[in-house]
Specification:
The complex is a heterodimer of chains A (173) and B (309).
Chain A lengths: L9 H23 L2 H17 L9 H15 L30 H12 L3 H11 L5 H8 L3 H25 L1
Helix pairs in contact in A: 1-2, 1-3, 1-5, 2-3, 4-7, 5-7, 6-7
Chain B lengths: L1 H5 L3 H7 L4 H10 L3 H11 L8 H14 L12 H28 L1 E5 L6 E4 L5 E4 L4 E5 L7 E6 L1 E5 L6 E4 L3 E5 L3 E6 L4 E7 L1 E6 L2 E6 L2 E6 L2 E6 L11 E8 H11 L3 E2 L9 E7 L3 H12 L3 E3 L4 E4 L1
Classes of the chains: A mainly alpha (173), B alpha+beta (309).
């Protein structure tokens, strides 16, 4: 898509939605932990984009959407506990023959979700953008406007936490 | 071992496959990360509830109709129309003479808030300003892209998108920023800047101070005094004010921003210090919190006049 497309044109606007709405929702979910609220804010951000479509150039639309949504979330009281839930496609294994079966039980998966939810916001955000959204460290750095080393640092800390939990699980068996 | 893994973000590099062969071999042979690998492979298969783009777009289509229709894109106008536009603008320019020259190049936008009113202003480029009660900002829209300068009286919270420099000018002092979040509070006697993200430079008379996240500054004895804070947004955006050993006179000045009240603080109380939290939403509660803690007796009379005994 070239730069001279106007955001006010319906097909450009719709295309922006199809490209960005889902990843924006996921990002907000990782950061704030409420899926419904994240979806409401995505809609709200796109309405704002529409209101300002004549003054926003196509290349800046994504940045605009991220800034606006972050600001909208500032207005929402953030005291709520983050409790992320993911859809898992494989059936947890209970086969004692599996050397890693203790890491594949349903209970442990739920524990993982809790541990990830309880990570500090910035670590959680970077870690999940990498694992779930499959963004590279470089892409995350650009999205969050921080250095790549800072991304690595946040992810390192998150990984250490997961490693500790994994070791505890092994001992408890 | 964990310390070693954190050093130079080794563990993140392991995950990213950006380690040197040697480092990788060493880590793999230690077996230290085998279990973590299993867990990560598991997490990698996790998904979030599917996003329904069609439903979202349908919802937007409905809501877009309620929004004032945006200006149609200029590329749709035909050539004849465009020439007419140009011709008419030239005509207007000539007929309006030099009055318009002044007008077009110095057009400023001014936004005010009344007592108890807050406003959120979005600037071109996506920056956000939240304006507290009894405050005012102005800026030049024409020159905005070359000169991002805001004049402020009162209190406001800024969330600035990255870009060229951004300047806030107040009667007391100035603030220079590059993409950040901060709060500025000014009154006749007070100048305070709190930085929530990024970096800002505060200038007050001949004093200069650079603030980063978690740092704030307040003018004391005509100098910028550096302080710290642990908030992520200013309290007033959530509808209350927090004070720590604040001058009672300052507190009353603040109250007048959020409530229509008549209040004349007796001189003997002016320099007392108040610490606590006052709501902006309920006058009775606010007055009670303030004066009961200060052990000052008062009654509320007609037209919200506060009378001291």
């Amino acid at each position: 898509m070239k730069g001279n497309f106007s955001v006010c044109e319906e097909h450009v606007y719709d295309q922006l939605y199809n490209t960005h709405a889902e990843s924006l929702r996921n990002h907000l979910y990782f950061k704030f932990g409420d899926l419904n609220q994240a979806e409401d804010i995505v809609q709200e951000a796109f309405i704002k984009l529409w209101q300002k479509c004549s003054s926003i150039i196509y290349e800046k639309a994504a940045a605009f959407l991220y800034t606006v949504s972050k600001n909208l979330f500032i207005d929402v009281i953030r005291s709520k506990k983050v409790a992320l839930k993911f859809e898992k496609n494989n059936m947890p294994s209970h086969d004692i023959e599996d050397p890693y079966f203790h890491l594949r039980t349903k209970e442990f998966q739920q524990k993982l979700e809790t541990v990830i939810s309880e990570l500090p916001e910035k670590q959680r955000e970077a870690f999940l953008l990498n694992r779930i959204e499959k963004l590279t460290y470089k892409e995350i750095a650009e999205r969050l406007e921080i250095s790549q080393t800072a991304v690595e640092k946040r992810i390192s800390k998150a990984l250490i936490k997961l490693k500790e939990i994994t070791e505890l699980q092994k001992r408890s068996i | 071992m964990n310390k070693k893994l954190l050093k130079d973000n080794l563990i993140a590099k392991w995950l990213d496959n950006s380690l040197s062969d040697e480092q990788k071999k060493e880590l793999d042979s230690s077996g230290e990360l085998d279990d973590l690998k299993i867990v990560l492979d598991e997490i990698d298969t996790w998904k979030i509830k599917k996003f329904d783009s069609e439903k979202g777009l349908a919802d937007l289509k409905k809501r877009k109709k309620l929004v004032i229709a945006p200006v149609p894109p200029s590329k749709k106008t035909s050539n004849i129309n465009r020439w007419l536009q140009i011709a008419s603008s030239i005509l207007i320019l000539i007929s309006a003479g030099y009055f318009s020259w002044d007008f077009f190049f110095n057009q400023t936008i001014t936004i005010n808030t009344q007592i108890a009113e807050n406003k959120t202003i979005e600037l071109p480029s996506g920056s956000i300003i939240k304006l507290d009660a009894l405050s005012k900002i102005s800026y030049s829209e024409k020159k905005w892209n070359d000169n991002r300068t805001i004049h402020l009286t009162g209190q406001a919270f800024f969330n600035v998108t990255k870009g060229s420099s951004f300047k806030v000018i107040t009667d007391k002092g100035n603030i220079n920023v590059l993409g950040t979040q901060f709060n500025v509070k000014t009154s006749n006697t007070n100048f305070e800047v709190i930085c929530y993200e990024g970096k800002v430079k505060v200038t007050y008379q001949n004093d200069e101070l650079i603030l980063t996240k978690g740092e704030s500054t307040i003018v004391q004895k005509n100098e910028l005094k550096e302080t710290t804070h642990s908030n992520t947004t200013p309290d007033w955006t959530s509808g209350y004010s927090k004070y720590n050993k604040a001058n009672l006179r300052e507190v009353i000045t603040d109250l007048k921003k959020y409530y229509t009240i008549q209040i004349q603080l007796p001189k003997k109380y002016e320099d007392l210090e108040f610490s606590g939290t006052l709501t902006h939403k309920n006058l009775d509660t606010a007055l009670q919190t303030l004066f009961v803690t200060m052990e000052i007796k008062y009654v509320i009379g007609k037209d919200n006049t506060v009378i001291f005994e």
